[in-house]
Each structure stands twice: as C-alpha cells, then as structure tokens.
Specification:
It is built from 4 helices and no strands. The protein has 142 residues and is mostly helical. It is flat. The model has no long low-confidence stretch (mean pLDDT 84).
C-alpha cells in the first residue's frame, strides 16, 4: 500500500485534475468551435473517468493512513473537515442571499454592488485567516 503514497502518484493526479478543470473551463467560457468539438468532449469525458476513481482512491488511502496513526486523530480530522464544510457552506449560502438581495428584480448586478459583495467576503476571509494564524501561533512560536 505504500507504493500508492509516492509523490509521483500525487503529481500525476494533480496534473490530470488540473487538465480536466482547464478543459471544463474552456468549454464553459468559450464559444469557439474547437472547444466544443467531439475530440475535446471525449477528452473531457476520459479525464473525468480517470480523475474520479483516482480521487476516490486517494481519499480512501488518506483515511486509512489517518486511521493507522490513531482513531482519535482520524475522528479529529473528520470533525475539522466537517466543520470546514459547514462554515464554507454557510458562507456560500450567505453569499447567495446577499446576491439575491442586491440583485432584486434586475437582470444584472451593477459594479458597485459587486464590489461591495467582494469586499465583504474578502474581509471575512482575511479575518478568518488572521484568526487561524493567531490560534496556531498564540505563543509567538514559529
């Protein structure tokens, strides 16, 4: 099982994931004919069917590795992950509510409202990052 924990395996997985995300982004944002050709569509599908099982495999192996380090460590990491998902989900829900409130009946959001929303979430992100930094380095240790 140690052979799956090699650095090259993670690098290949990250490269395939990045390629898949780039192709998906190009297809969404571009109206070019080549971006929606059959070859690109097939490449996107193939990358999806390669990256998805690799992601599941890495997730399972990571959890097994955490469990081998200790059951308490495993459950603490899962609790941290669940908390992060709940906080980010709550912030995403808050973002949707703010955008809906600012948008009202209009078709688009004007630049002023867009910048205000961006500033609000940038400040929230900076406060969270600063609080995490201070929590981890509260004794002034590096």
């Amino acid at each position: 099982m140690g052979e799956f924990n090699k650095k090259w395996f993670h690098i290949v997985w990250m490269g395939l994931l990045f390629a898949s995300l780039v192709i998906d982004y190009i297809q969404r944002m571009s109206d070019a004919q080549w971006a929606h050709s059959e070859a690109i569509e097939m490449l996107d599908t193939i990358l999806l069917w390669i990256v998805f099982p690799l992601t599941v495999l890495l997730f399972i192996l990571h959890n097994i590795q955490m469990w081998r380090q200790g059951a308490r460590y495993f459950w603490r990491q899962w609790q941290k992950g669940a908390t992060a998902i709940l906080v980010s989900g709550g912030l995403a829900f808050l973002l949707v509510l703010i955008v809906k409130k600012c948008k009202g009946e209009a078709v688009e959001i004007n630049n002023e409202a867009r910048m205000i929303i961006l500033a609000i979430f940038a400040v929230i992100g900076l406060v969270i990052a600063f609080a995490r930094y201070k929590f981890k380095h509260w004794q002034g240790e590096e």
